[in-house]
């Protein structure tokens, strides 16, 4: 049976699957893992986890489906991240994660001025500098850990690290590169040599490929470690949100893709690279498919925090949140539990729960969490529209779609129709599709047709309107106090 393997390394777990060439999932496996938070604002991961879990999960998949003839491999992972390795390919320090790691906050103004100002950076890179920018993270390591920098010869992200270990090739996909701001030109699709040398002196940049391009083939050493056949092709891979977007066919201008996961990610394809203040302009997975994206620092992570805090069962708490009703019985939350990325770009923002009384239940708090993330989605949409980016409908994927309450709240708050596809496995499925496209003629519309459409309820949309305006006001009203608290944490 011909099959492809898709892998995704997420913030809290790694998932892998085997799929037939018609998109049917044969087997799925996963492993949970944790990130490290050595200090406030620092979020890292032991990169050994990425390869260890890939090899383990691959063996499990092959054992579950011994009849599978794996013909290609696709990979994705969290990003933009920074892993530095030495001349022997060994990691020099833990990987620095994406925008949830805010260590560069104090460096951004200096770097922006050094490169000629925000307008100059946006003109070439599409986005200004933020804690999401991997180029700024490279500069941070070069300045603060010179002994590490002196030994660094390569930098990779989770997907490109696995590709390197599978194939021996030092590559990075264009989309991931476009999030290494300010090192990559989103209009020319090339590295910016003078800015690479200024922020990452002496570090060779990886060869650039598009996400679905073949990076190389599985080597004999990698085959021995994974059980995969020698010589099968491997994609260049990409960042998980874009692979998940591929899995639902998100490359339609005006349709926003929402990734319901530990963090929430938003992607809107655009006809051409479009700078939007507070958001990220990227080049997408394929040539001619640029997009504007945004991301929350936490979303599903808050619900998981709450579940662990009260020792609750997910299904029970979800039903309690449903029963709480619109407005969570007078509760309002700011979901900035790890700072916030877009559109406020405030690493010192913190979570706030307003309106608590002794009568409130965990269901009310859970409901307030879901509503807060929906308000944040609407905030991002309003910023996009103000910059001329059309957003007329939504398409969702990810584990948060289970139970349908969360996407229903998002549709009601935004007033937008939302499509839920047949397969919501996520990025590993998108990675498998890209792998299949290396060796066969496949169509994601046949792999993963729409299954459900969530229509917004006009009555609910109107009922959420006061809550949204209070949400926007609450941040401004509490910002000064929250920043003082953050400085003492």
Automatic annotation (TrEMBL):
Tell me which domain of life the UniProt entry assigns to the organism this sequence originates from.
Answer: Bacteria
Pfam families named among the record's database cross-references = FGGY_C, FGGY_N
Does the record's keyword annotation contain Lyase?
A: no
Keyword Transferase attached: yes
In this chain the Carbohydrate kinase FGGY C-terminal domain maps to 259-437
Coiled coil regions in record:
none
Q: Which UniProt keywords apply?
A: Carbohydrate metabolism, Kinase, Transferase, Xylose metabolism
Q: Where is the Carbohydrate kinase FGGY N-terminal domain?
A: 4-241
Q: Which GO terms describe its molecular function?
A: kinase activity
Per the record, the similarity remark reads: Belongs to the FGGY kinase family.
Q: What is this protein called?
A: FGGY family carbohydrate kinase
């Amino acid at each position: 049976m011909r099959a492809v393997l898709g892998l995704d390394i997420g913030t809290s777990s790694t998932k892998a699957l085997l799929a037939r060439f018609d998109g049917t999932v044969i087997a799925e496996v996963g492993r949970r893992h944790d990130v490290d938070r050595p200090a406030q604002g620092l979020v890292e991961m032991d990169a050994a986890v990425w390869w260890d879990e890939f090899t383990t999960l691959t063996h499990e998949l092959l054992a579950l489906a011994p009849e599978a003839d794996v013909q290609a491999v696709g990979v994705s992972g969290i990003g933009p991240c920074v892993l530095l390795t030495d001349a022997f390919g060994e990691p020099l320090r833990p990987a620095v994660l994406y925008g949830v790691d805010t260590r560069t906050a104090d460096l951004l103004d200096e770097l922006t001025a050094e490169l000629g100002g925000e307008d100059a950076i946006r003109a070439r890179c599409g986005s200004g500098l933020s804690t999401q920018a991997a180029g700024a993270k490279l500069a941070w390591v070069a300045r603060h850990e010179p002994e590490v920098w002196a030994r660094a010869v390569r930098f990779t992200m989770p997907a490109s690290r696995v590709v390197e270990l599978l194939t021996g090739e030092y590559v990075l996909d264009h989309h991931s590169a476009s999030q290494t701001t300010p090192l990559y030109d989103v209009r020319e699709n090339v590295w910016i040599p003078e800015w690479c040398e200024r922020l990452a002196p002496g570090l060779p940049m990886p060869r650039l490929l598009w996400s679905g391009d073949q990076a190389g083939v599985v080597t004999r050493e990698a085959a021995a470690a994974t059980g995969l056949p020698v010589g099968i092709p491997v994609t260049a891979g990409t960042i998980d949100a874009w692979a998940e977007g591929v899995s639902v066919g998100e490359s339609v201008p005006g349709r926003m893709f929402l990734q319901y996961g530990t963090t929430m990610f938003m992607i809107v394809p655009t006809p051409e690279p479009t700078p939007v203040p507070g958001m990220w302009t990227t080049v997408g997975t394929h040539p001619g498919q640029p997009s504007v994206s945004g991301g929350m620092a936490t979303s599903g992570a808050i619900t998981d925090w709450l579940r662990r805090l009260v020792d609750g069962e997910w299904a029970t708490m979800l039903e309690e949140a449903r029963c709480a009703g619109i407005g969570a019985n007078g509760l309002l939350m700011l979901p900035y539990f790890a700072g916030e990325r877009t559109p406020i770009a405030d690493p010192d923002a913190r979570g706030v729960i307003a309106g608590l009384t002794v009568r409130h239940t965990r269901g009310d708090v859970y409901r307030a969490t879901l509503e807060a993330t929906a308000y944040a989605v609407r905030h991002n949409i309003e910023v996009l529209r103000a910059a001329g980016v059309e957003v007329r409908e939504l398409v969702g994927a990810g584990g948060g779609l289970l139970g349908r309450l969360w996407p229903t709240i998002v549709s009601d708050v935004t007033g937008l129709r939302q499509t839920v596809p047949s397969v919501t496995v996520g990025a590993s499925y998108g990675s498998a599709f890209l792998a299949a496209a290396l060796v066969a003629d496949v169509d994601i519309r046949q792999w993963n047709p729409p299954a459900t459409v969530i229509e917004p309820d006009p009555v609910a949309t109107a009922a959420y309107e006061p809550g949204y305006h209070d949400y926007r006001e609450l941040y401004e009203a509490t910002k000064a106090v929250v920043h003082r608290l953050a400085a003492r944490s």
